């Protein structure tokens, strides 16, 4: 039974299947080497036996038989099998160097200087190229041995047998019986040699082309997506990164993860998003949401280009890019109430949602006024397909706000916030926390909880249908938001230390109907400055 085909293109992926196929050919090579040793030994035994008969008249034929069998086989062992073993040693050496360097490379912190990262990238790319070339050359040499042994080993044996059978007239009858088989075999050997010689140059040319970097990039466009990934797995003593060989089927949306010496794991893909550098200390990472696991699975690719290929295969999305909206001096009078220029607000939003730009909008400059930034945030929140405080809870919240008992109002509103979807609730908590900080300086900015509620009531809450009753309930929307701001420390699920500088991050998310995700809050001290952060999303809804 033949071995699986050994292709040059398999060298690039270096898959477990490729390594197993290599082992098959290596075992075959060992068997061939052992067979040749035994064949040479048996040939010498036959020659020595003939010499031992003291048949001087046959010494010339015996010496000729030795030249026909022993020398060609020894030459084949030296030039082909020994050369293949040398290529194997080089392949194993380069393989060890590359994967050792790769593990060091992948453990480098993403927070290193760009110059250091670039130097590390160049080093690992050099090792990868050396490994790839040694792999291609090794496969080429294996093909050489496999092809040449079909005639370089059989032809000497055939010639030797013919020489032995023609030593004297007693073997004439045997020779006549042998001749048809010999002629058929000679024809087959000649065809095999002709085929080898006609394809040898093409094979060598293909090897040279395959080693060229341009051919590698060309191959990537035709391969099904597969390769090594490191998966972050949580253990009792902390997280660790486990190496898997992964294959992705785009039709089935299945990711097959093959660990070392274990059964493969099959995951059904829901979504794929690139991890931002600042969110993880590792480089080249992306998150995959699957049907089988509750939490996203974080993978680390071998390089940035490798990650792009995986994300392209999985229809991956870029993460929302963090943009900082600086609200200088939350003590500024009328902050959030003062309206910015419509033209400037639209210009900011257009820049913010520009799908062709992969960089964050620079808001450090004085180009963007505080009122433009606050107006853009309010406009975006109002433009969501569903408000943060969802349609389903709108009626209940209005009813709670109409209660005459302040404690009941607070209790019911607090209870209803827990019925919001998890990410909506997190966003609301952090937004209200931010507004609470702003209102704590109402003696300077004149933005009391009541005033702030007038601004954000219609932004965070609205009825599904615009009716007269809904118009009359607007004041109760404001009451809900006012209560949340006044008692934000009681209502929010996460308590935060008091700070004079708050960063409020609002990010858009594709996974929610209203297209937003969690807001993260970082606390800083010293200067009384508040920063509102908004994130890009190419699939926004105005």
Automatic annotation (TrEMBL):
One MF term from GO for this chain?
A: GTPase activator activity
Q: Which CDD domains match?
A: BAR-PH_GRAF_family (cd01249)
Keyword list, A-Z? GTPase activation
Give GO terms for biological process: signal transduction
Q: Does the keyword tRNA processing apply?
A: no
**Which residues does the UniProt record annotate as the domain Rho-GAP?**
286-492
Query: What Gene3D superfamilies is this protein classified in?
Result: Arfaptin homology (AH) domain/BAR domain, Pleckstrin-homology domain (PH domain)/Phosphotyrosine-binding domain (PTB), Rho GTPase activation protein
The protein's superkingdom reads Eukaryota
Q: Which residues cross the membrane?
A: none
Domain named PH: residues: 222-319
Q: Which GO terms describe its cellular component?
A: cytoplasm
Q: Which PANTHER family match?
A: OLIGOPHRENIN 1 (PTHR12552), OLIGOPHRENIN-1 (PTHR12552:SF2)
Q: What name does the UniProt record give this protein?
A: Oligophrenin 1
Organism, by scientific name, is: Oryzias sinensis (Chinese medaka)
**What taxonomic classification does the UniProt entry list for its organism?**
Eukaryota, Metazoa, Chordata, Craniata, Vertebrata
């Amino acid at each position: 039974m033949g071995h699986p085909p050994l292709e040059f293109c398999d060298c690039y992926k270096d898959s477990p299947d490729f390594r197993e196929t290599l082992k098959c050919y290596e075992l075959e090579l060992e068997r061939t080497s052992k067979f040749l040793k035994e064949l040479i030994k048996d040939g010498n035994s036959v020659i020595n036996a003939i010499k031992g008969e003291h048949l001087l008249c046959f010494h010339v034929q015996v010496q000729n038989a030795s030249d026909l069998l022993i020398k060609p086989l020894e030459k084949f062992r030296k030039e082909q099998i020994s050369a293949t073993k040398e290529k194997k040693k080089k392949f194993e050496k380069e393989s060890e160097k590359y994967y050792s360097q790769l593990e060091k490379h992948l453990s480098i912190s993403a927070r290193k200087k760009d110059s250091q990262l670039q130097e590390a990238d160049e080093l690992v790319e050099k090792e990868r190229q050396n490994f790839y070339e040694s792999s291609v050359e090794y496969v080429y040499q294996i093909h050489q041995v496999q092809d040449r042994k079909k005639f370089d080993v059989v032809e000497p044996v055939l010639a030797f047998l013919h020489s032995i059978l023609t030593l004297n007239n007693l073997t004439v009858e045997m020779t006549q019986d042998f001749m048809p088989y010999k002629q058929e075999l000679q024809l087959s050997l000649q065809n095999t040699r002709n085929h080898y010689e006609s394809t040898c140059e093409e094979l060598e040319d293909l090897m040279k082309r395959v080693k060229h970097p341009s051919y590698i990039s060309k191959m990537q466009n035709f391969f099904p997506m597969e390769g090594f990934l490191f998966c972050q797995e949580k253990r009792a003593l902390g997280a660790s990164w486990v190496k898997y060989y992964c294959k992705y089927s785009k039709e089935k949306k299945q990711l097959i993860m093959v660990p070392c010496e274990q059964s493969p794991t099959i995951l059904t893909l829901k979504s794929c998003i690139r991890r931002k550098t600042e969110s993880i200390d590792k480089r080249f990472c992306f998150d995959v949401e699957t049907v089988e696991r509750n939490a996203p699975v974080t993978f680390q690719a071998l390089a940035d280009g490798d990650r792009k290929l995986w994300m392209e295969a999985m229809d991956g999305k870029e993460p929302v890019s963090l943009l900082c909206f600086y609200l200088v001096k939350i003590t500024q009078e009328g902050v959030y109430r003062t309206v910015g220029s419509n033209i400037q607000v639209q210009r900011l939003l257009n820049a913010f949602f520009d799908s062709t730009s992969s960089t964050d909008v620079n808001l450090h400059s004085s180009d963007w006024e505080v009122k433009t930034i606050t107006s853009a945030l309010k406009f975006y929140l109002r433009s969501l397909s569903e408000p943060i405080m969802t349609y389903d809870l709108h009626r209940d919240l209005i009813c709670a706000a109409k209660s005459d008992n302040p404690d009941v109002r607070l209790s019911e509103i607090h209870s209803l916030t827990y019925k919001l979807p998890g990410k909506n609730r997190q966003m609301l908590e952090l937004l209200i926390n931010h507004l609470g900080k702003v209102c704590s300086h109402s003696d300077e900015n004149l933005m009391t909880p009541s005033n702030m509620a007038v601004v954000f009531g219609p932004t965070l809450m609205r009825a599904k249908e615009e009716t007269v009753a809904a118009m009359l309930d607007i004041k109760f929307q404001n009451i809900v938001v006012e209560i949340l701001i006044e008692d934000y420390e009681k209502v929010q699920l996460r308590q935060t230390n008091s700070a004079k500088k708050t960063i409020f991050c609002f990010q858009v998310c594709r996974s929610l109907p209203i297209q937003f995700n969690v807001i993260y809050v970082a606390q800083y001290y010293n200067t009384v400055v508040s920063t509102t952060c908004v994130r890009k999303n190419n699939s926004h809804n105005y």
